[in-house]
Amino acid sequence: MPLTRSTKYAHRKLWAYLVLVPFVFLLASCSDGRKKCYPISGKILVDGKPAADCFIYLYPANPADGEGKDRTIPLAVADENGAFALSTYGTGDGAPAGDYIVTFTWRERSGLLKNQYEGKDRLNGKYATVEKSPVRLTVEKKPTELPPFELTTK
């Protein structure tokens, strides 16, 4: 029995579904596993002055959120005005939404060319670890300009 025009169209449509549907599912499953990040910026002040070269790190407040290959530690380095933009996967991309413990280290530049950060922590380790730092932050699902972090050396 010869195929009619509508039968040929139905066969083409069936073949299109058989080829395209698995392809769409394949593409959907090829995620890079990265968490969605939201731009976060702010300023770091120490004793009221901009803290150039101060490092800021965000550690998940819930340890289960930071285990295994999904562990991310957003970080930034303050510029000469104390301003920073957090980065997780790429420069300035922000941080995933969630609750964090924030740590800071403000090391003196060291090395022959003063391009290393291995000198003494000018914050005396006060904010250097998750156990010591009193600073907490909740990253919401939106770009955020944070109020200044006002740290002290005492």
Please give a structural write-up.
This protein has 154 residues and is an alpha+beta fold. The protein folds into 2 domains: 1-30; 37-151, Immunoglobulins (Immunoglobulin-like), CATH 2.60.40.10. Helix content is 16%, strand content 27%. The protein has one helix at 5-29; strands at 37-38, 40-46, 49-50, 55-60, 75-77, 83-85, 95-96, 98-105, 136-139, 144-145, 149-151. The strands form 3 sheets. Strands 2, 3, 6, 10 and 11 form a 5-stranded mixed sheet that branches. A 4-stranded antiparallel sheet has the order 5-4-8-9, with no helix packed on it. A hairpin with a 2-residue loop joins strand 2 (40-46) and strand 3 (49-50). The longest helix is centred in the N-terminal third of the chain and has 25 residues, at 5-29. Residues 14-18 and 23-29 have low confidence and may be disordered.
